[in-house]
Every structure is written in C-alpha cells, then in structure tokens.
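Sample intake sheet
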Amino acid sequence: PQPWLQQWARVGWHSGATGLGGQLRGAYAGTGLPVHRGEREPGSPVVPGVTAASSLPAVYQPRCPPRLEHVPLRSGPLAVRWWNEPATSTDAMGAAGVAGAVPTGPLTVFLHGFLDTGETWRFLVDEWPEPRPFLALDWRGFGASPDTGEPYWFPQYYADLDDLLDRVSPNAPVNLIGHSMGGNVALAYAGLRPER
C-alpha cells in the first residue's frame, strides 16, 4: 500500500481527538501536509506562498462561476451548468465568462461519473487556457436533477444526452468529455451518433 494509506491504517479514522479537524490531524501525521486551517506540523516544509492560516481561502472561489439551468427533456428536467455560454443557449441569456473574454470554439459537454455531479468540472473550466463554451449536466437523479421515477440505465442516459444536445446545440457537433460512467456514455454515444 501507499505510505499515506499505511499511516491512515496505523492511526485509524478516530485518532482520539474530537471533531473532524482532530481526525484529519491524526490521519495526516508525519506527512508534512497542512492538517487543519493552514497549520503545519512542526518541522514540516513551508508551503510557498502560504504564510498563515488566514491566507488560505475558506472556500474555493471559481474564476468563472457557472449558471444553473433546468432544461426540459422528454424524460423530465435535467440540470445543466453553463460556463462561457454561447448566446444560443436554451434561454439565449449569454454570458461573457472569464474577464469579459468572448468564448470561441465548439461547445464542450462534460459528463460526470456515478455518484457525482456536473459541478465537479468547475476546477477544469477554471484552468482551461482559453475561454470556450462549456456545459456540464447532472444525470437524472444526481446533483440538481430530479429523480424521474424511470430506470437509471445506459439507454436512458444516451437518450437524455441526445435530447439535451438537440436542444443546446441542434446544428453543430460538440466535444464530449466524460469521467468514469460519463466516459462510458460518451464513448458509446460517439459510436452511435458520430455526427453529433
């Protein structure tokens, strides 16, 4: 096993301290990693650019916040997040995105994995080198998409994706990027509908 996993097994989830901070402090003991609110273990290396706990952001602040929208599909509404959206999105709202830059290139659609949400992709969007239109969906029953009461099976995911793409990019192909289950859906869908 990895050294950090051995350390975790040796210390255990409950390190005798109270609260999650104490549990993490025990779990990361000896790693030199920040253990709680920017604290360092004595003798651990200094992290460049971090001088005190107050200099660490409390919560990740996205550079390009998404806009959440529920798109009506045949199977029910599907939650999608837009970044740098084109003016042709479903409500034609349009957004300037990062620092007022105009998005270029084809729409890129992110497909999340099992037990995940489209919100996960915000970190990748923030690090993308040029502004371009992005959309991340929440599969039915995940994230902000409601449970439709129908089965959760790959044919339904293909149908949901096909219906969504017909609504958000009816006349142009898109780039699909998927992780885990979303990657399987992307591969199968690309084989079924290569023109999309």
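Comment: Residues 4-41, 88-100 have pLDDT under 50 and may be disordered. The first strand starts at residue 67 and ends at 73.
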